[in-house]
């Protein structure tokens, strides 16, 4: 049997839990905080594989094992690895209070509406994008993915190459605050501090950080929830044009938007660019579906319109005032997906730059037939598998006499490119 004990957030490990253990596995600070049973072998938990092999040796001899972990070991913790290797039926889990619960308790906030994301041993970009998109996020940190790196990524999210006098977006402006919780549960070392992302980026935080809370404090309390954690997806998308402020019907029509969203696939943890945003309808819809979004718009009134639509729908959209492709050079982070809804004569260059940087997908909407070949060539030249469709729709429209006609909308070409994976050759090929 493996007894897995959560500790490190204030609850001491009872001596009877350790009694009789032949092997005790844990981090250095966990082992230093307990009195090992006589004859027990301590193993400092570093790389996981050797520790699991050692545990297997003791289990093979039917010797009891204790694993010490931080907080709740079933929450982004070692329970998963142990259950996968040895089976859940061989585990006796004694959870402690998680660092996330403790950190929110320290600042007096509920956390059933918080999104929890782990950056420990994982790519930091997903955590960064979740922080951009959601008002209440807990980030579990790790080496190379702590408050400094998270703060640097957020504050460096964009350096506008267009109009540098434009008001920055919500994250770039410091609209988020960090609560950095270190050494939780240690009476002599525990420290909880509020800092801006820029202040966090300028500090050396050492190795004691337990968790970072990234908050939009104006929305940090949140409403009562039925489902905890990740927010429910909206019940509707491809919203009617009337649900957005726009100028002279210059807006991506909902039929086009529906297919564009299907091809973009925006989700929590993604970063999406809406280039030539216009009213920002695509940007807002991607944000409603959970993605972090940067909208690039060259018209000053368009910039304000995008911001107004984002506020009206309760989402965060970082708006860059500038013309593509020049403005794209100031966007520090490569997107997962890009929607191009404008570009004029610069369209091939815009699509080429978006294709160069997009990690997954580029979707291009065009009304002009003459621009289709150049946009397609830009996608295929960048190594994307390209497909497309001409969308023509007719909507029901009333006529006098309580009858209905079909009113045609303008046809739109929608192209999409999907990045094809690069297959590495084996040594025998």
Automatic annotation (TrEMBL):
Q: Which InterPro entries match?
A: 4pyrrol_Mease, 4pyrrol_Methylase_sf, 4pyrrole_Mease_sub1, 4pyrrole_Mease_sub2, CbiE, Cbl_synth_CobL, Cbl_synth_MTase_CbiT, Cobalamin_biosynth_MTase
- Membrane-spanning residues: none
GO BP, one annotated term: methylation
GO MF, any single term:
protein methyltransferase activity
Query: Under which name does UniProt file this protein?
Result: Precorrin-6Y C5,15-methyltransferase
SUPFAM superfamilies for this protein: S-adenosyl-L-methionine-dependent methyltransferases (SSF53335), Tetrapyrrole methylase (SSF53790)
Location of the Tetrapyrrole methylase domain: 1-157
Reply yes or no: does the keyword Nucleotide-binding apply: no
Source taxonomy: Bacteria, Bacillati, Actinomycetota, Actinomycetes, Kitasatosporales
The protein's organism comes out as Streptomyces yokosukanensis
Q: CDD domains from the entry? A: Precorrin-6Y-MT (cd11644)
State the source organism's domain of life: Bacteria
The coiled-coil regions, if any, are: none
Which pathway does the record list? Cofactor biosynthesis; adenosylcobalamin biosynthesis
Alphabetical keyword list: Cobalamin biosynthesis, Methyltransferase, S-adenosyl-L-methionine, Transferase
Report the residue ranges that make up the Methyltransferase domain in this protein: 272-356
């Amino acid at each position: 049997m493996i007894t897995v004990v959560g500790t490190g957030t204030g609850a001491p490990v009872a001596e009877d839990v350790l009694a009789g253990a032949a092997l005790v596995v844990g981090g250095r600070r966990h082992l230093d905080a307990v009195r090992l049973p006589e004859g027990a072998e301590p193993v400092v938990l570093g790389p996981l594989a050797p520790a699991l092999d050692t545990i297997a040796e003791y289990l093979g001899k039917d010797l009891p094992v204790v694993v010490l972990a931080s907080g709740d070991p079933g929450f982004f913790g070692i329970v998963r690895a142990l259950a996968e290797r040895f089976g859940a039926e061989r585990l006796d889990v004694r959870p402690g209070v998680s660092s996330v619960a403790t950190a929110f308790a320290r600042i007096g906030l509920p956390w059933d509406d918080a999104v929890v994301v782990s950056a420990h041993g994982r790519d930091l970009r997903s955590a960064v994008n979740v922080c951009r998109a959601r008002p209440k996020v807990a980030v579990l940190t790790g080496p190379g993915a702590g408050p400094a790196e998270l703060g640097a990524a957020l504050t460096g999210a964009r350096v506008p190459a267009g109009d540098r006098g434009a008001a920055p977006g919500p994250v770039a402006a410091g609209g988020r605050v960090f609560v950095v919780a270190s050494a939780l549960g240690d009476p002599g070392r525990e420290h909880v501090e509020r800092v801006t992302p820029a202040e966090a980026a300028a500090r050396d935080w050492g190795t004691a950080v337990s968790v970072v809370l990234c908050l939009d404090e104006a929305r940090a309390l949140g409403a009562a929830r039925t489902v905890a954690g990740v927010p429910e997806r909206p019940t509707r998308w491809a919203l009617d044009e009337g649900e957005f402020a726009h100028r002279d019907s210059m807006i991506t029509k909902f039929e086009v938007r529906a297919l564009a969203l299907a091809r973009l696939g925006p989700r929590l943890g993604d970063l999406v660019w809406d280039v030539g945003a216009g009213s920002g309808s695509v940007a807002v819809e991607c944000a409603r579906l959970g993605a972090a979004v940067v909208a690039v718009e060259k018209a000053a009134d368009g910039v304000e319109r995008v911001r107004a639509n984002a506020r009206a729908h309760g989402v965060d959209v970082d708006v860059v005032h500038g013309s593509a492709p020049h403005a794209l050079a100031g966007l520090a982070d490569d997107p997962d997906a890009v929607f191009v809804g404008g570009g004029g004569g610069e369209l091939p260059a815009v699509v080429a730059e978006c294709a160069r940087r997009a990690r997954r997908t580029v979707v291009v909407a065009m009304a002009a037939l003459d621009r289709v070949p150049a946009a397609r060539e830009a996608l295929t030249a960048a190594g994307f598998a390209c497909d497309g469709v001409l969308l023509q729709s007719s909507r029901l429209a009333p006529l006098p006499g309580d009858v209905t006609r079909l009113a045609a909308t303008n046809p739109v070409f929608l192209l999409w490119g999907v990045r094809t994976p690069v297959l590495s050759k084996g040594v025998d090929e």
